[in-house]
Sequence to fold (324 residues):
Amino acid sequence: MITRRGTVCLVLLVLFLLALPAFAGSYLLSVMTLILFFAYAGQAWNVMMGFAGQLSLGHSLYVGVGAYAAAGIFFHYGIGPWAGIWLAILLCAALGAIIGFLAFRFGISGVYFALLTIAFAEFTRIGFDHLEWTGGSAGLFLKVAQREAIDIANLRGPPAMYYYLILALAAGAFALCAWLIRSRAGYYWQAIREDEEAAQALGINTFRWKMLAVLISSVMTAVAGVFFAFYYNNLFPEQIFHISRSIELILGPIIGGVGTLFGPILGAALLTLLADGITDLLAALGLQFPGVKQVFYGLVLLVVVMFVPNGVWPPLARRLGLVR
Fold:
């Protein structure tokens, strides 16, 4: 439970984030937008793994399908993203339901469930590589209009608009997860995560509640995909469906603390700031090191697993007196 000091710190953080565009430059704003994007996507993954204990290594599937669904109908038919987001949600919910049904009905769990999620993401990547409607491997490019005036209907505007949009999504995901973890579903998920056989013995319908976790996680990640499409304005199957994208999405919660509310936020901030700092430092020194971010991610993950296996947030929060 969060303490009074933790509540004060949370309020100060929210005020800081709200005021940030008033004094931040475009580069800092883009970095903060990226942090909030990974914080939001990390919360979505955390529902499936952190709460319900179902390891997914193919969450790029939902990001990619959500992004292509909204961007595709906008590109071909001029249908705005606020309508496209519902198509993205429906498609990703259907994919999540198929994966969940196949896995949970036939008793696929643990590492085999993770492999199933990777397989679906890879199948989809190969399919989109040959799908002419979305540009195939050549990519899909959205028209970028002027970015001074705010056109919220088509998600066109200055960087501050995207920043506030992803801030609202991240805050909404945090509030939703805080409610979920204290709801009946949250208690059932934690029971399933700790010992599924014991949960079944207590009369919990594990199939139903695991399916709910997969559906909520996939729907939330679909929304992240829509934001990704209209923020970057270009999509490539190799870029968005690749397993490295899934790893980027899940590293935040793992580094920060799986199953915690603040872990995905702290993990996303640490990874993004440190990785970008290393990249900028190497560029300033005139050095080129291909794959430096991936090497850095691996080193950070190794350190966390060895010294703080529950993530950075739990010991840090206790040390600072932010939680009981």
